[in-house]
Task: structure prediction
Amino acid sequence: MRYSRSHDVMQRVLLITTSYFVLAYSLYFLFAGHNNPGGGFIGGLTTACALAFIYLVFDRDTANEYIRFTFPALISIGLVLSLGTGAIGFFANDNYLTQYFDYFEIPFFGEVELTTALPFDLGIYFVVVGAAMVIMLTIADDEKEENEN
Amino acid sequence: MEYLIFIAIGVLFSVGTYLLLCRSLLKVIGGFMVISHAVHMLILTMAGLNTGSAPLVDLSGSDSTDPLPHAVILTAIVIGFGLTSFLIVLAYRTYKAHKTDDLEKLRGADNE
Amino acid sequence: MSLLHWIILIPFLAAFFIPLLGRMFPRIHTGWFVLFIPLALVMVTWISYSSLMADGETILSIVPWVPMLDINFSVYLDGLSFLFTLLITGIGALVVLYSIYYLDKKKERLQDFYVYLLMFIGAMLGVVLTDNVIVLYVFWELTSLASTLLIGFWFIRDKSIFGAQKSMLITVFGGFAMLGGFMLLYIMTGTFSIREMIGDVDVIMNHPMFLPAMILVLLGAFTKSVQFPFHIWLPDAMEAPTPVSAYLHSATMVKAGIYLVARMTPIFGGSSEWFWIILITGLFTLFWGAISALRQKDLKGVLAFSTISQLGLIMALLGAGSAALYAQDPDLEVMYAGAIVTAMFHLINHSTFKGSLFMVVGIVDHETGTRNLQKLGGLMAVMPVTFTVSAVGLAAMAGIPPFNGFISKEMFFANMVELMELPFFGMGDWAIIIPIVAWTASVITFIYCAFMFYKTFMGKYDRQNYWVDVHEASPGLLLSPILLGILVIVLGLFPNILTQTLIHPSVTSILTGVSVELEPYNLTLWHGFEIELFMSIGVVAVGVIAFLYHRKWTRWEIYNKERDVMNLFYDQGIDKLQDGSAAITRVQMTGRLRDYFMYMLVFIVALLAVTMWRSGQFQALPEGLATTMDTPLYMYGVMLILVGSAAVLPFIQSRITFIISIGVLGLMVSLFFTIFSAPDLALTQLLVETVLLIVLMLAFRHLPEMTKEPKSRSYTTVNVLIAASVGALVTMVSISAYALRLDLDFTAISDFFIENAVPLGGGYNIVNVTLVDFRGFDTVLEALVLGIVALAVIMLIKHRFKGGEDI
Result:
């Protein structure tokens, strides 16, 4: 990825502000997914876009200070989460990947629905973020190395 | 309206096929992407076109759209995303290794 | 699961555990563990079933496997199966015992050897014990596989690989043919069970497919039982370790074809084709094998051809005996049933004397380091025990009293002479040729036995000829051949000990269709002054004379051509096959992506178009549809931009423009989803397009301009033609499919998802509920695909291949 070398302040401020909005939206997509348009895939891709913005603004080293993830590891965390949530079905003598939900009364929030679909979708979210970022960053790193050589 | 869309899909398929037969690796990948778009549109059209409300339970009335093709296409889009990005990286590496994206030159020796 | 099932399965189960045992106790020869299995099986079989068999009973037990297709793992034990089971396990035990001393504990891969051997034992037991032809076929091919693996056991030698491949190709070809025959039988009778087929024998006899089915089944039997001209694989199979040759390639596996013919006799027997094909093939193989054996200079080569010849003899007897099923006359039936008795008796005899001979040859090879008849000589004084055992075995094979081979050979002569009186099947005066061929082959058998005996053991012992100091083998190595040699003598002196339990039950189970109750046949060493006795005397006399003058005729050129001429066909065939496949591959595999796409596209288009056209499935949309839903004007605009952004793609020369144009197309598709109320799709499409655009830009930013397409007119025309036909076909097929869908007017399964999203999934977004709750597996595996892509990308770029490597 080309790291911005210009000192165009307007561009930076605009992109950073946008990326915060996008990030917030992505979380909304993730959590609202069960009842409104959205979900793990959409949330994950939105997050990937937001992170890509940040990498566009800063150079790789600065960006790494803000974003301290090893993205390949994120993929495996996501997979374990999704597959693990599916395994709950075993303990309840149901099929694999059976999802459960119930409504709980929680003070302050009122009646809230809690589902096993949420951790499942969260796993998908992690995988998508991880995969998209790995693909983008790997190519970017490769070009950077080549330019330095 | 269906006629219009089916014809559009046919054109997309033609363009995609033409691009697949090209010599440039990037064009082949482009062809692949065009054909996936066409397939997604085809699935949606096959299920019956409907401009009614979105498939959300609280909105749905008698004219809401069919959610099943949506779920199917969503899966297809994501898989297509994975495949396309893999193809892109493959093409990228091929170029880096062989310094060309001409498929004719990438043929290698005879009798392979 | 009955005991019989376990008898088949135990060797397979043991094959899993033997390597573990071998590793746990490296100081003990693995063979000792294996020895228990055939030993236990032979005892269990004998104790549990011998009295039942003597009473003429049978046992059937069925375990369903694929009951819908009538494929059941059914086992059926009658006299014939019992005889073979004892043969397989009994000889198996002796061979394992022999192999313990034959194969060196340190040098050889013992675990592999015994796993293959156990697999063979299990598969062979499966062949002879099952009643279902499909199960029989599966085990049949498993025996071929085990045989191939064992022939190639010393795979460092090229000859081993050649022999293994040859045996595999020929026997598997036969196996396929046999499977085809079984399918035809299934078409005729509607069952895969042999017993039920026998019940339907009238249907089979009068069916037009009778002859093809018979020939196909016989191909399987003939390739396995090395009948002419398929015998060529056996001499090359002699590259296997000697215990394997003794076991698979003389005593058991090559007799699977005999078993099959015997088993199928109630189905096909009684027809003249069956009678003549088997009789002539058998006699010719007998003769050809004997002549070829005479020319061999390698001890194992002699034994290989002699096995071919003896199997031909048994085959001929089975053919002759099938006449009993046609005869209808009690006297004739009893007379020709005698041939089957001889066949069964000789089957046992052959296993005993040939097994012991193979083992003895192995000992000679083991102790002297050579099997070449021209180098060997004078071993009588050095290896007295080996000498005695081989003398017994060779005498039995040559047909000298009082050994068991003499009795069966005399009976064979008698059966062949009786054939001349056959009143049907077009037998005429010329039939005298049958006993003459049989007699001549016996003379030659006598001569090559004499050769083996004389060249190996007689003459002067010359120390110079051997690499090592020759001495008698260890007692362990000698034990198995001695036991078999004792059997040869015992069966010669008291031939009737097995009649009641083995021979008579197997004969009755082969000849189920005869009208009379067959009596147990009385086997005796002394037949009285019959014609067969004079024939035997003639064999010995002519044989001795020919042997005395052997220095004259061994100089003939034909005598020195060791390699069988039939090999020409095989060698040429393999060469041509390889060249042909290479040529076809060269034509088709151009290494051009475009060509491969063209093959696929043209094929798909042609297939679909022709099929749709022929079944008249091309339809237009119903008349009303186009008008009921008016196309809004903006729709034309959307489609125009959508199609337009795609249509410019082939003309773009700049990379960046190309990528941007693809992006426009993606955004238009997203808009299309929005128009038709698919918010999830529109969002996903939008985001995917964004990310892909970034990836595309990253990857292709620095590359030079795109490769220009060649300007050649034919190139462009072909591309446009294919592209246009694909597009047209897609449009027409989708319109027809849509019209069909409206015609059928079915209820969509989507209703289930719409109704159950809230009650079962607890969510209001039906698409997401479908993905997460109802079709969770799809979604998880999709995530897995993405994970794999990411891994592949890392592998491709971070752990890159350097240029010039063959990727």
